[in-house]
Amino acid sequence: MSEKLSIQPPEDEELQIESKYTKEKKIGEGTYAKLVQTEIGFQGIELSAVREVKVLRELRHPNIIELIDIYSHQTNLQLVLEYLDSDLEMIIKDESLVFVSADIKSWMLMTLRGLEHCHRNWILHLGKDGQLKIADFGLARDFSDPHVKNMSPQVVTSYAVDIWAVGCIFAELMLRTPYLPGETDIGQLETIFSALGTPTEDEWPGFTELSNNVRFQKYARTPLKQLFTAAGNDAIDLLEKLLVYDPNKRITAREALNHSYFRNKPRPTPPENLPRAYVWDPEGNKYMDFLCAYSAVNQGHCHPKIVKALCDQAQKLTLSSRAFYNDVFAVETGIKLARKWGYLKKGIPENMAIILSCTNNFHGRTMAVISMSNDSDSRTGFGPFMPRIGSTCPVTGRSIQFNSLKDLEETLEKHGPQVAGFLVEPIQGESGINVPDNNYLKKCYELCKKHNVLLIADEIQTGLARTGKMLCQEHDGIKADITLLGKALSGGVYPVSAVLADKEVMLCIKPGEHGSTYGGNPLGCAVAIAALEVIKEENLVERSATLGEKFRQALRKIDSPLIQTVRGRGLLNALVIDETKSNKTAWQICLLLKSRGLLAKPTHQNIIRLAPTLNITEEELMEGVKIIENSLYDIVKMKDEDIPGYLEDLKLQGH
């Protein structure tokens, strides 16, 4: 939310802009000058110039407007500053935007941080408009300003005037409508008193002297909780302290920052209304997200089009039960559908249908799905498990290894007549981004066709542009009999899944035989449609393919003995760490990456999964590569206790 301005005396019609700036348009007029938006020719950055040198030369803070440049023309001194193209007032008025209590807390935190910095440097800021960066330094903000001599003692000596304005901003954010508005001074006071009660002498010393000249109606105070019904007790308490009548008793900016309302600090919400490749933690630290919620946010975090679809539909119809709604429910549905097909179409004897899978799979955590798993973390303590389902051959007891056509063929030869479906991930994600041989999926499909078995492709993680194709199975040129989708089908905004199949398979389940309360609800459908449109409109399939190739090339150029293998497709990739070359684990590397602003996750001890959002830029991607390279170089020289967060993590694990 930044840009820049230029101020000149109001009587001058033509502002003389230094040659390197190109005048674009007049964007406003203040007390002393006109504001003109400019563009710096050789950089193409929108700029503006303002006349407030002294204050800004003394201030350096992330929540205060940044001074870029200073130059003079004749008698005019001009500044080049950040240009703030939006503020909280615009956000509040934009009905298409949705923000929650954490967003309000974040904006309040940033506003108070900037204000506290001003006050600490003896700078008053009377005209608060609620920007995320304090940008307006109009009248008498500095004690050395000659205008201060005309101000009342209370204004000159008290920062409380700023705090009252912050309270009004806080209230307006919660209400999304102006709070305590007034066109005139008297009208403003009437509005304030009608809301907060007409003050007594104890509440506002000196007020009775004022009221000798102006008669105000006696209003009773209305408890704030009656108006701010959704606010928590901490929020109400802070608002009351910000809006105390007596400025000497009003909370200071520093005290406000230490208020219990900010005890659990929210992530700062980026001001740009853009899909993001970054996330923020509760302390405000920014991270490049190379985990991407296991491919749930392919389109970027909080994509505005997807969020808008959810909000628009929420105002119409929210529930009509049908079908399925989350990832693992799609897997369960696929299994049920294959079994039903097996009995109705293939003629498998009742209760004898087999569903095969591969070892090291991950399809979810429901009973049917963990019955197919060989992961002890998923299975221990949850038995007995469902029979005739999983990766083990019922006769030989041998497991079907992923990427082994021989194992699958032998099992189908022995049990083909009773096998209804073969469930497989095109690329195994949780086991370490295991990419099978070329045409593995195609040959599995051919074996299934030979034995009249349905191929069920679990594309919940690999589908929807993640691997450089809309569906990962397209790399092998096939169309699975049943395809399972989830995660990015909603862009991470809402639980949505889907099961795709031809009518011959899908219609084996009749109306009333399968469904759930929230399955197929209008909210999920609206979100899914928007998420698919984003993938198409923003060319995320092509971006994933192109950036993925460049990403792997860059990773393979890293000269580190720790890298054993780089593998993946599109923007679903992994680094396999050679632990024989170091005593450092993939988890320790991920902790170091986190401390340097990049989130990734280890899996199977020595593998680091790398899956950024598909809207990431090439520059951001290469920045991530640099962080990875430097971390791999540095960690071999580090002691365990020097790795940020490692000792704390050991304590949490009970070591």
TrEMBL record:
First-tier enzyme category under EC: transferase
For this UniProt entry, the molecular function terms from Gene Ontology, in alphabetical order, are: ATP binding; identical protein binding; ornithine aminotransferase activity; protein kinase activity; pyridoxal phosphate binding
> Which Pfam families does the protein's record reference?
Aminotran_3 (PF00202), Pkinase (PF00069)
Query: Which coenzymes or cofactors are required?
Result: pyridoxal 5'-phosphate
**GO BP annotations, alphabetical order:** L-arginine catabolic process to L-glutamate; L-arginine catabolic process to proline via ornithine
Question: Keywords on this record?
Answer: Aminotransferase, Pyridoxal phosphate, Transferase
Claim: DNA damage is one of the keywords in the record: no
What GO terms fall under cellular component here?
A: cytoplasm
Protein kinase domain location is: 1-262
| Pathway membership, UniProt | Amino-acid biosynthesis; L-proline biosynthesis; L-glutamate 5-semialdehyde from L-ornithine: step 1/1
- Tell me which family the UniProt entry assigns to this protein: Belongs to the class-III pyridoxal-phosphate-dependent aminotransferase family.
Give the matching NCBIfam families: Orn_aminotrans
Identification of the protein by name: ornithine aminotransferase
Which organism was this protein described from? Answer: Diversispora eburnea
